Amino acid sequence: GAVVSQHPSRVICKSGTSVKIECRSLDFQATTMFWYRQFPKQSLMLMATSNEGSKATYEQGVEKDKFLINHASLTLSTLTVTSAHPEDSSFYICSASRGGEAFFGQGTRLTVV
Amino acid sequence: KQEVTQIPAALSVPEGENLVLNCSFTDSAIYNLQWFRQDPGKGLTSLLLIQSSQREQTSGRLNASLDKSSGRSTLYIAASQPGDSATYLCAVRNEGGSSNTGKLIFGQGTTLQVKP
After folding, report:
1. Do B103 and A32 count as a contact with CB atoms less than 8 A apart?
2. Which of A81, A82, A107, A110 is a Cys-bridge partner for A93, taking CB atoms 3.0 to 4.6 Å apart?
């Protein structure tokens, strides 16, 4: 099946710094990718839709200046958490679809200390 | 607005039992429905994808059904094993977008524990 790879799987950063998370579609091209956030014991919350070659579409309540998304190629989208704070600590997951089937990355556990 | 509900939230069964997980959605105008498995601290693994025109899909011990008119899907797991312990999520993709660009709307998940 199609593979979506996410990197890093874990990151610890200091408060005030920025962290970049990469999402790659390994064997297919994805004009659209999605970024989710997941809190403990909860389902996925869609943060934004990443569109190749254009601006991302953010869900209501998600700060676009806080969570910068870049989708510069058909196989790569990046999410940068800027000026991270402890409340940004969470599990972030990306996905891309092929043939209508969604495939997810392994997730990134972000801890801001 | 589409809402997806999964019942039960948690389920514990002895090994070998057959079980059914339920998913309901409020708007029947869906493009497709997908069942996922999530292990703790991991991403989601796609289990089964059912197109809106289909009634069911099978993969090994898993069978997913779809009744679009009533807004329901079930995931049937036969002869459950301890390795099936995980959280199972269903998600629908609404009509109106393309098959690859439309958003997924997730249920809250059912956490399954299969005891040896």
Report:
1. no
2. A107
- Cis bond leading into A40, ω under 30°? no
- For residues A73 and B59, what is the distance between their CA atoms, to the nearest angstrom? 34
Give chain B's mean pLDDT: 94
Q: Are strands A108-112 and A10-13 parallel, antiparallel or unpaired?
A: parallel
What's the start-to-end Cα distance of chain A, in Å? 37
Sign of the Cα torsion B24, B27, B33, B38 reads: negative
A88: number of CA atoms within 13 Å, CB side? Answer: 26
Which chain A residues contact residue B5 at CB under 8 A? none
The single residue listed with the structure tokens 């607005």 is B1
> Tens digit of pLDDT for each residue in A31-57?
899 999 999 888 899 999 999 888 999
With pLDDT > 70 as the criterion, what percentage of chain A qualifies?
A: 98
CA distance A103 to A35: 12
Dist. CA A77–CA A50, nearest whole Å = 7
